[in-house]
Amino acid sequence: MSKKPASLGLDRRFVTRAMAAAGAAVLAGCERVAEQPAIRGFVQSAEGLNLRLQRLLQNRTALAQEFTPADISPVFKANGETYPSTPEYEHLANRDFAEYRLEIGGLVERPLSLSLADLRAAPARSQITRHDCVEGWSCIGQWKGARLGPLLQRAGLKPQARYVVFWCFDEWDGPPGRGQPYYESIDLIDAFHPQTILAYEMNGEVLPIAHGAPLRLRVERQLGYKMAKYIRRIEAVESFAHIADGRGGYWPDRGYEWYAGI
Amino acid sequence: MARADVRLKDGRLSVYRHPAAVRLAHWVNLACLIVLLGSGLQILMAHPALYLGSDSSFDRPIAAMTAEEQPDYTLKGYTIVLGHKVETTGLFGAMEEGGYPSPRALPPWLTLPPNRDLATGRAWHFFFAWLFAANGAAYVAHGLISGRIRRELVPTGAELRGLGGSILEHLRLRFPKGEAARHYNVLQKLSYLLVLFVLMPLMVVTGMSMSPGLNAALPWLPELFGGRQSARTVHFLVAMSLVLFTLVHLAMVVAAGVWNEVRSMLTGRYVIDPSQTPAARTPVPEDHP
């Protein structure tokens, strides 16, 4: 490169600074464009395409891949909340969840209140599956739990019910007792899928607190953040538009897809 | 439709090289690749480590970017590839963010959006993945129906036999300027075929292999690559191959004449100089139909 003519009055430091400033402006512009609600909504329209394509290719009961005991990961990463600090949860945890009751309500004919013993007596399924986190990593683990479908049938879904919402003990973004409870929701196709279980066992042992004791959802055809831990209540609803920010889950309210099949 | 050559005043020929469909597909593809790369790196930043197999063996990734706190509380960034650890503070692993040292795997100028925002990165990645696949499918359909892929991209036996000579010519940065420049040379043909029919489809297929929903529909898909985490690693390596291809492609454009090449991809017209053709054909008369 030949030297810049002195008459332009450009010294190298000025050019470097100008380029850095221009670069920063471009980066800031990128952020602002991505934050525009109209652009965000347009780009998020791909979620509907993903849902439709996957439901088209999947049989309703197509099973997520299952593995053998030899494939179980030696370390299964515990992500998100690993010990809810609300007084209510700590009270239950200190008594090994003997006083725990799972409430199933909302748009159902017969609301249920089930102890862990009731859940262990319900139709169960055990599966060794791969857990895919939205961050990109995967762990393989064995899960055993009560199948959600038969429990919902026992409660009797009303005809208007279209989604199942899972309310959790762990609270986010606030002091204990006043934060936003973690919640997630799935549609009835996933709710009645044979691998959709309320797991109380992991790798042959009682579900550890780090992984969602006493009860965690497994929705094996979606990403990890859908699989709510520390479930306290299940609610059948017609729509989740009235819940929190209306996108059907704690992370969906923060920009993540409600349908996390990808 | 091939359009007629136009004789310029200085005796050179303006030939019609790229039909509109190809030019459109080229620029849509460029936009897709830029967004997919930036948003893909944003997604990688959420867990900057690569593994082989179905699951993540966290203690032995084949490649990773990490930050380590020093005794004086500063941060150093490291990049580890196949057990080799290199300090990369400021570029990979750890860097200044908002005036403070931060364990951030990739610099803001490489990720889309530049700030840390996995949700937005994913939304953009999947939207542009659909656009990329649709654009690629439309390009291939056009190329097959028009016969352009067979005519312009599939090398002849004679060309393949002359491959060695063509490589030498390229290494000397000697490019055909005359009649031979009407068509792609054998190296261009092979690299474009590799990108079109191997690398880009691999991006789509390895991307689909990471989807738990598609895994239930097509359980053999991640197994093609040795499991989901292997598919993720292949996705990254093929993306880097496409970056490499793009850099070489840009270098070739510069070496062969920026304005002529860029104009041919904007207007379709490329100027050749028949007088530089070794075995010059009869010049096309000015009143050629």
What does this protein look like?
The complex is a heterodimer of chains A (262) and B (289). With 262 residues, chain A is α+β, with helices and mostly antiparallel strands. Chain A has two domains: 9-35; 64-254, Sulfite Oxidase, Chain A, domain 2 (Alpha-Beta Complex). Helices cover 26% and strands 24% of the residues of chain A. Chain A contains seven helices and ten strands. Chain A is globular. Chain A starts with 11 loop residues before the first helix and ends in a 25-residue tail after the last strand. With 289 residues, chain B is an alpha+beta fold. Chain B has two domains: 6-48 and 109-276, Transmembrane di-heme cytochromes, Chain C (Fumarate Reductase Cytochrome B subunit); 50-105, no CATH class. Chain B is built from ten helices and nine strands. Chain B has helices at 20-46, 118-146, 148-153, 157-161, 163-171, 186-209, 212-217, 220-223, 228-256, 258-266, and strands at 6-7, 13-16, 49-50, 63-69, 75-81, 84-87, 95-97, 100-102, 269-272. A four-stranded antiparallel β-sheet of chain B has the order 3-4-5-6. In chain B, strands 1-2-9 form a three-stranded antiparallel β-sheet. In chain B, strand 1 (6-7) and strand 2 form a beta hairpin. The longest helix of chain B has 29 residues, at 118-146. Chain B starts with 5 loop residues before the first strand and ends in a 17-residue tail after the last strand. At the A-B interface, helix 1, helix 2, helix 3 and strand 4 of A face helix 1, helix 2, helix 7 and helix 9 of B.
